[in-house]
């Protein structure tokens, strides 16, 4: 693999031992000025949309409820995800630099994977919130107290970042085959492992176990919560009450799909799409990073009546 990568780069390319080269959109270098326009708009929407959701929740006392506290966690996670990759993605498209130092690459890897685990944990907490609200409404406020919500948030934060520290730190001590060319416009753990000449068995097995214990387990628990919610809703006699109960889950269900579908798609492309154009790999990587932070504010602004009403009222006042 190292020999193949070295033969695919021109001999005059000089990349220092501690510097990696990020991949933009191969074959579309002349289109970067045009590609930078939609990507700049997407990042602007990611940052402004999630900031707007956070602002609405913070300034509206009526939204100081468990459901919206978890939504604020989700918006903050999406905002940080956008901030962690904007400088490399737009830096390539704007023609600044495709190079990134090893320390900066490891730091970006830490935040990208940590924030992905955190988003999965927040979605699981939101599923528990909806399960409690529908299946045990009389004890909803007593179960999800402010103290318990803070503890859940701290647990999600610790689970997301503490568990990935060991394999991320190991990346610092690996030797990497030359040239140091990554497959995406940002750094990923599996991408750095493909360039490593050192023993990567610990990182490989640990990463697999972490994926099973976080993303896979979270998705299974979310599925179980929805099965229990559906079972509880079907016991309601009134069709209107059933519809009203399920309506409160639409936004969260859409957010779950928006998060897990790109992850599955990127995994399938990496596993079975080696014959596909490199542009497809880069595009799927950017969808994995940008699609959830872009869509979540739109979903909750449109589907959640309280958020929609407050945003509409806020823009009316501004006008």
UniProtKB/TrEMBL annotation:
Regions that span the bilayer: 34-57, 69-94, 106-128, 149-174, 205-229, 250-273, 279-300
Localization: Cell membrane; Membrane
Keyword Chloroplast: no
Positions of the G-protein coupled receptors family 1 profile domain: 49-300
Membrane topology, from the record: Multi-pass membrane protein
InterPro entries: GPCR_Rhodpsn, GPCR_Rhodpsn_7TM, Olfact_rcpt, OR51/52/56-like
Molecular-function GO term, any one: olfactory receptor activity
Gene Ontology biological process terms from the UniProt entry: cellular response to lipid
GO cellular component: plasma membrane
Highest taxon above the source species: Eukaryota
Keywords: Cell membrane, G-protein coupled receptor, Membrane, Olfaction, Receptor, Sensory transduction, Transducer, Transmembrane, Transmembrane helix
Gene3D superfamilies attached to this UniProt entry: Rhodopsin 7-helix transmembrane proteins (1.20.1070.10)
SUPFAM superfamilies linked: Family A G protein-coupled receptor-like (SSF81321)
Function, as annotated: Putative odorant or sperm cell receptor.
Similarity comment: family membership: Belongs to the G-protein coupled receptor 1 family.
Official protein name in the record: Olfactory receptor
Organism for this UniProt entry: Ailuropoda melanoleuca (Giant panda)
Lineage: Eukaryota, Metazoa, Chordata, Craniata, Vertebrata
């Amino acid at each position: 693999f190292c020999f193949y990568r070295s033969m695919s780069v021109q001999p005059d390319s000089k990349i220092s031992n501690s510097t990696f080269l990020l991949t933009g959109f191969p074959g579309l270098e002349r289109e970067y000025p045009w590609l930078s326009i939609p990507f700049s708009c997407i990042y602007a929407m990611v940052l402004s949309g999630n900031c707007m959701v956070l602002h609405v929740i913070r300034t509206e006392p009526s939204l100081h409820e468990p459901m919206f506290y978890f939504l604020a966690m989700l918006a903050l996670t999406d905002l940080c995800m956008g901030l962690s990759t904007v400088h490399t993605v737009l830096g390539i498209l704007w023609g600044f630099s495709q190079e990134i130092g090893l320390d900066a690459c490891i730091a970006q890897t830490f935040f990208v994977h940590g924030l992905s685990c955190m988003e999965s944990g927040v979605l699981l907490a939101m599923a528990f919130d909806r399960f409690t609200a529908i299946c045990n409404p009389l004890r909803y406020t007593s179960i999800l107290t402010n103290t318990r919500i803070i503890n859940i948030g701290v647990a999600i934060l610790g689970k997301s970042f503490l568990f990935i520290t060991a394999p991320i730190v190991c990346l610092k001590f690996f030797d990497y085959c030359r040239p140091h060319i990554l497959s995406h416009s940002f750094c990923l753990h599996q991408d750095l492992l493909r360039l490593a000449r050192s023993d990567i068995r610990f990182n490989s097995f640990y990463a697999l176990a972490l994926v099973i214990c976080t993303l896979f387990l979270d998705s299974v628990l979310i599925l179980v919560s929805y099965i229990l919610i559906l079972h509880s809703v079907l016991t309601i006699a009134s069709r209107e009450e059933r519809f009203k109960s399920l309506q409160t889950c639409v936004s969260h269900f859409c957010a779950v799909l928006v998060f897990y579908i790109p992850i599955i798609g990127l995994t399938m492309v990496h596993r079975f799409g080696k014959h596909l154009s490199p542009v497809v790999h880069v595009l799927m990587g950017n969808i994995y990073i940008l699609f959830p932070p872009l869509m979540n504010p739109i979903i909750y602004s449109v589907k959640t009546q309280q958020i929609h009403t407050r945003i509409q009222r806020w823009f009316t006042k501004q006008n």
